[in-house]
Design goal:
The complex is a heterodimer of chains A (about 475) and B (about 400). Chain A is of the alpha/beta class. Chain A is about 25% helix and about 35% strand. Classes of the chains: A alpha/beta (about 475), B alpha/beta (about 400).
């Protein structure tokens, strides 16, 4: 069953197409100081950013690979190309100006259409560079900034210097150091005081080159009392060699702000997805990570929220689907560093065809914090005997006035539920599909409608041939 | 090291076992904080290599004592050729000790085999139903020495027995106890371990167990003493239909550090297991609970639970809770839960309305919190636990 199902799945990965590599500039394979200088030079960066990159490269060399989590032993850092510039023309504000093949890629992914219908702004990254960034005019007039970080370095150096690399320092971990050294593309978002961006903005990340490393860098600053919902989507072609995606995402939610960051990660099954995401929430601010991991070969990603101000709230909703030869090592981290902070982590994972899904999470309540509340729920479904599910929750409670609850369950699709649905006339396959959908429902509900539909469709695809 | 082993003056079989262990011990290194299980308990703060060995007088006067039942010293068993325990069972005990030497959980396993002052054995013959409690008590003593003991229990098919191990060390030394529990098909074994040492004692307890087909092991550990405690209890559910209960309670105060590891390892079909650990942390103490449910690919029909509840009484006390699951098959029911909080103010208020002082109310609620873990204990141990907690709460708050 599994071998048949797998061919079905590869054919069905509808984002697996690629166009010939027409990059106008690429660094050579491998990574050293010269490559980093070339990237910085290509971007015409100020000296302080070049220095930041070189320091980061040093940290990258000094840091050890993580000795826990997914197996990363076959990553060969010398085999990747770290920078590929797809076009000489810079980022456009009109789809018509984007080079033909790149535009065609995004049309096949349905991005321009989505922009017209239900997005406030769209960014599109092709390999190393953002080729398109646009935001609704009325929002721009209110002072909302949505652009590439390169442009932000040039136009808003004060904001960038104040926040860039402060939430995730380049010394944080090996992959954050790598990203800091060779970062390219991503988004820079600034929402001014009191501005509420009512419909989501989206960035779309596409890898086209082979044996390539994409290292986008996103910085979101939500000023006091503002709101923004940022969505990222990721796809790549299927090649015979592995590629690496290692992003760094930093979010600052100032007093009373709310930021929601949703990811639908659907990389092809030859991508290592090793991402560092961290947010800080000040007084009465809220940060929510909605993290859907369907694709990639191995993912290690634990979106974090540091609750720094009184009354701050953090939520992580994590959903992972590990199919054949996939390993999803995901979860969430919350640090309660102020009084009356609250947090919720909800994780749902599905393992199938020998896939490995692991929840890895941390709740830390710091000494002296009063009235902190945290609730963590992890549910896992295992669809066949060869698949694996792991749960590693860490709770570090250093204060008495807290309420910390954690529960986790692992099970297969219940025979009783299947029997019930089949006795109502559904086939076994349909019944299993319904149960899986029901299992994910609390999470899917949190997504905007069109993403929820897309996610359901993706799950359906992944489930094909699994039961009955 | 060799001098110490020679000074123990034992039967050749034990001496040979120690020789076998020595090589492996010398090649191994102490657990380091980069190992997940030891990340929160740093042994390097103690100069373990510099600890001395107890001399003959200290061993004689403050060795572990057999209080009740048919527990024997392995050396005596060997010297009384076959009278105390049948030779076949003795062979089995050696096979098990050699297996431990070849596959140690960590260097402490080897250290303990190498230096155990006594190896105690309890043999429960096939079909016997022991009503009487077997009891071992260890008032270990010494300054800057490491004291070691080992216990091996063989509960044969369809037998039933209970053993209590009580550790009450005093003064600044290290006390380690290694234990192996073999529960054969259809047998039932209850083990109650109580750590009541004073705060200068560094205490390590490491137990391994194997539970056979339709057999049942009930293991309880209560940590009330020891300044620095690191325990691990790892049980293999090796027979189909086997059943395991791991109960634990820990009450820490002062500057105590307690780190408890449990593993419920499902290796066979249709086995069930339940871990239930509760802790109360006071003063500047810290407790770590690391529980793991591990389900092998072939262990279909597994039913496993893991629960950890903690109460933190004051600022400065800390609790880490890490309940993990590693599941390699689909036909399982596995879950875990963990809660950490403080004593419910409403419950205190309720009791105060009924005329209790705040201190009395808190004590009642703490004892009540542990109560569901106490009823499985032998009667006198239940009272001892309650009294110890009462004594430690007195004059506080």
């Amino acid at each position: 069953m599994s071998s048949e199902a797998s061919t079905v799945q590869i054919d069905d990965y509808k984002y697996g197409f690629s166009f010939p590599d027409k990059s106008v500039f690429k660094t050579r394979k491998g990574l050293d100081e010269q490559v980093v200088r070339e990237i910085s030079h290509a971007k015409n960066e100020p000296e302080w950013m070049t220095e930041f990159r070189l320091q980061s490269l040093k940290a990258f060399r000094e840091k050890d690979m993580p000795n826990w989590g997914a197996d990363l032993s076959d990553i060969d850092f010398d085999e990747f190309v770290y920078y590929a510039k797809p076009t000489d023309e810079g980022q456009k504000r009109n789809w018509d100006d984007v080079p033909q093949e790149i535009k065609e890629t995004y049309e096949r992914l349905g991005i321009p259409e989505a922009e017209q219908k239900y997005l406030a702004g769209v960014g599109a990254q092709y390999d190393s560079e953002m080729v398109y960034h646009n935001i609704r005019e009325d929002l721009e007039k209110q002072g909302v900034i949505f652009t590439s970080p390169e442009e932000a370095v040039e136009k808003y150096p004060e904001l960038v210097k104040k926040y860039f690399g402060t939430i995730i320092p380049y010394t944080d971990n090996k992959f954050a150091a790598l990203n800091s050294a060779v970062w390219s593309g991503g988004s820079f978002v600034y929402v001014p005081k009191g501005v509420k961006v009512d419909i989501p903005i989206q960035a779309y990340f596409r890898i086209n080159s082979e044996s390539f490393g994409q290292f986008e860098r996103t910085l979101i600053i939500a000023d006091e009392g503002s709101f923004v919902h940022y969505i990222e989507g990721c796809t790549a072609p299927i090649y015979s060699t592995d590629s690496l995606h290692s992003a760094v995402v930093e979010i600052i939610a100032l007093e009373g702000a709310r930021v929601r960051y949703s990811t639908i990660q659907n990389w092809s099954n030859d991508i290592y997805n090793l991402v560092t995401k961290r947010a800080v929430a000040y007084k009465n601010a809220t940060v929510e990570w909605v993290d859907g991991n369907l694709g990639s070969k191995r993912t290690m990603k634990y979106p974090a929220i540091h609750l720094l101000g009184e009354g701050a709230h953090g939520e992580v909703l994590s959903i992972a689907f590990a199919g054949e030869k996939q390993e999803q090592d995901t979860g969430g981290k919350i640090v309660h560093a102020a009084d009356h902070t609250s947090s919720v982590i909800t994780s749902k994972s599905i393992s199938k065809d020998g896939g490995i899904s692991s929840y890895r999470g941390l709740i830390r309540i710091q000494e002296g914090v009063r009235g902190a509340k945290s609730n963590v729920v992890c549910d896992a479904l295992i669809l066949d005997p060869d698949s694996v599910s792991n749960t590693y929750p860490y709770m570090e409670i250093d204060a008495p006035d807290v309420s910390m609850e954690h529960e986790a369950r692992v099970s297969k699709i219940s025979e009783e539920q299947l029997f019930y649905l089949m006795s109502r006339g559904f086939s076994e396959g349909e019944a299993a599909m319904m149960i899986v959908n029901g299992f994910l429902d609390p999470l899917v509900k949190q997504l905007p409608m069109e993403y929820a539909i897309e996610l359901n469709r993706l799950i359906e695809l992944e489930m094909e041939g699994s039961v009955g | 090291m060799t001098d110490y082993i020679n000074s123990l003056d034992e039967h050749q079989r034990i001496a040979d076992l120690r020789k076998r262990v020595l090589g492996a011990f010398e090649k191994s290194s102490w657990p380091k904080t980069d190992e997940e299980e030891w990340r929160r308990t740093d042994l390097s703060v103690f100069d373990l290599d510099d600890l001395g060995t107890p001399d003959a007088e200290l061993r004689e006067k403050t060795g572990a004592e057999i209080k009740h039942g048919r527990i024997h010293r392995l050396n005596d068993v060997l010297n009384c050729s076959g009278e105390l325990i049948p030779p076949a069972v003795v062979d089995r005990i050696f096979t098990e000790l050699e297996r431990m030497a070849d596959n140690p959980a960590n260097r402490i396993t080897l250290w303990n085999l190498l230096q155990s002052e006594e190896i105690f054995v309890l043999h429960v013959p096939r079909g016997t139903d022991d009503k009487e409690l077997h009891e071992l008590c260890w008032h270990s003593l010494g300054e800057d020495v490491s004291r070691h003991a080992t216990v091996v229990v063989v509960a044969e098919e369809m037998s039933s027995a209970r053993i209590a191990i009580r550790m009450k060390g005093m003064s600044g030394h290290l006390q380690t106890m290694g234990a192996v529990y073999l529960v054969d098909d259809g047998a039932k074994l209850g083990v109650s371990v109580l750590q009541e040492s004073s705060d200068e004692v560094l205490a390590l307890y490491q137990a391994e167990a194997r539970v056979g087909r339709d057999a049942r092991l009930l293991h309880f550990e209560g940590i009330l003493g020891g300044g620095f405690v690191k325990n691990r209890v790892e049980v293999g559910l090796a027979g189909s239909g086997s059943d395991l209960v791991l109960d634990g309670l820990y009450f820490t105060d002062g500057e105590q550090h307690v780190d408890l590891r449990t593993v419920q390892h499902h290796q066979a079909e249709h086995a069930s297991s339940r871990t239930y650990y509760k802790g109360v942390m006071k003063d500047e103490s810290e407790a770590v609970f690391q529980g793991l449910i591990e389900v092998n690919h072939e262990a279909r029909g597994t039913d496993a639970y893991l629960t950890n509840n903690n109460l933190i009484l004051n600022d400065g006390a800390k609790a880490d809770s890490i309940p993990s699951l590693n599941i390699k098959t689909d036909d399982v029911k596995c879950s875990h839960g963990s809660t950490t909080g403080r004593i419910d103010e409403e419950q205190i208020y309720y009791l105060q309305c009924r005329g209790f002082t705040r201190k009395e109310a808190e004590e009642m609620l703490i004892i009540g919190f542990f109560e569901d873990l106490l009823h499985n204990l032998p009667g006198n141990m239940q009272d001892d636990v309650r009294q110890q907690i009462h004594r430690r709460l007195k004059g506080s708050f």
